[in-house]
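Sequence in, structure out.
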Amino acid sequence: MAGARCREQVTGNREDIRFRESSLFLLGSGCKRSAHSLLGERMDGIGAFHVGGQNKMYRVTRVGSRPLQAFAMLVAWVGFGQAASNVQTFPLSDTKDLVLVNVKADAVEYKGRKAVRLTNETQKDGFALLRGTDFQDGIIEGDIALKITTPPGVRMPGFVGFAFRARQDASRYELFYLRPGNSHSDDQEMRNHSVQYVSEPDFDWYKLRQEWPWVYETYAELQTETWTKVKIEVKGRSAKLYLNGSEQPSLVVDGLKGEDLRGGVALWGYQGEEAYFSNLRITNSTPLPVKNGSDAAGTWQVRFSSYAGNFDGTLQLTRDGSKVAGTWSGALGNTRPVTGTWRDGYVEFIFNAVWPSQGPGDAGTGAAKLAGWIDGDSAGGRMKVEGLADGRWTATRKP
């Protein structure tokens, strides 16, 4: 409905409703109903209410008997309109909303529903970007199914998932994906590779598995050629993966690795399979106040919380471009030389730690590694002492 027509319905002769500010602002640019249809009857009184961060005064003339209920309907409708603007739905019954990068997409029927089938016949990474998405924080929900098409005898667990904070050319993105074929393996280690988080191109599955085993992947009950409900919840630098309506996440990532804080949402598949997608819904939330680029230089009070206990220490750091140097002093040794890298606020440090004799394991030395993000005067991420302990680290910059 055009703005002029919407305003006419709000202020028309049949409704003696007057607003201090434009009634069109109250109902929003997407006004689709008149105040008459929302209120149902005229009201009497003067009052104030709060919408969109501004106080609104109204004066209405009453003829009916239930003004408060009717007015509540109006306010509720306004609130619903504002909330609905944060939601994007993609039934995926056709391919019109997809921007294809190195993949092929077809509208099909699969397992009793309309869906999009994604195939990748190239050796290049790619996905189907959902047109008009610009996602930072919020929830991504959708249904996924997978049919493996590789010849019998060729090992293929399948790979299918949702990418987010993605660049349009697929050069960078965060990704949760499923490997349904691993879920019922006789090898427990293989079963533990059922769901995976990666950040392409810098942190693929192999790098994360070698450096941080079992942290970015885990077991989940999955089936091929079966619809699986997937929900991804993203808040700042953290994300959680939920499957099949579970209230508990299957995988928690505290410290997303990607350098982009916002981007598109995409359907992701792989070679040697048919990936099916249906009923996608994106709910954008107010982003947490996270920014990249915080400096590493300074004195940091650090706590390493591991399965072998808590270890406190102090990092003294300087930065020259992407290179970081300094010392560690504390529970894992004093004045231990530290070297590392800095990338727009993401850091990785290493030093030779002294393992205490009173701790579990044999006393001695081991390579300690910290990886994570610096956000202002706070920092945190993953830390390990090779072969001795693994856990999380947090730090606060001293004045």
